[in-house]
Here is the input.
Amino acid sequence: MGVIKRNNVNVRGSGARAMIFAHGFGCDQNMWRFVEPAFEAEFRTVLFDHVGAGGSDLKAYDRVKYSTLAGYADDIVEIGHEVDLRDAVFVGHSVSCMIGALAAQKAPGMFGKLVMVGPSARYIDDGDYVGGFSEKQIEELLQFLESNHMGWSTQMAPAIMGNPNRPELGTELTNSFCRTDPEIAKAFARVTFKSDNREDLAKIDIPTLVLQCSEDIIASKAVGEFVHRAIPDSEMIILEATGHCPNLSAPDEVIAAMRSFV
Here is the structure.
């Protein structure tokens, strides 16, 4: 199966360098619609959907391949070869931050800079490490999702989005979660929330920008600071934006932060 069809890849813009956007759990490339157009004049922009999301080919889903984030990173490398990414800017949201970090290690030279929006290297607390959730909390969250996908989406999406004064944002994320294939969503959630990529951070050898929201129940400031400290050549900008999806709730702030970096 062609990579372009499998991941619903769309290439836009112009420019000598490319910028690829990777969405988070329960989302699709549409989540970048307020950010990506700002870079089309300077970059060849690449949008895609992880297998199981958006317009991707659901028949391409392989439970074994996608049982770790490395499987998703392999897809990004394949997309990169297909559209000839060299020294590109990788922009990842949420779990795709770590997927991008893995992809950069798998394909040296493909990416020249990383932008991480709301990253977390591990969601579960571990000794002195504060991920934001206990193992019991994550297991309860996953069991809730596995028993009631729609109910979980309706309850969790607005909390993840934050910005209760703008309920339309929570509704959009809820609808996005609900559109995702339930069985794939359950598996991807388990892979996401059980992942531990702390040791991978020190291996990142390209300039990295960490964009951290001032309040985020999924990836707290302490989590963002850990990611920043662990990546050798990184800088961190704390956004005024709140919630876990500033690409939707505060796109102008995200664009301004990215421009100063890329």
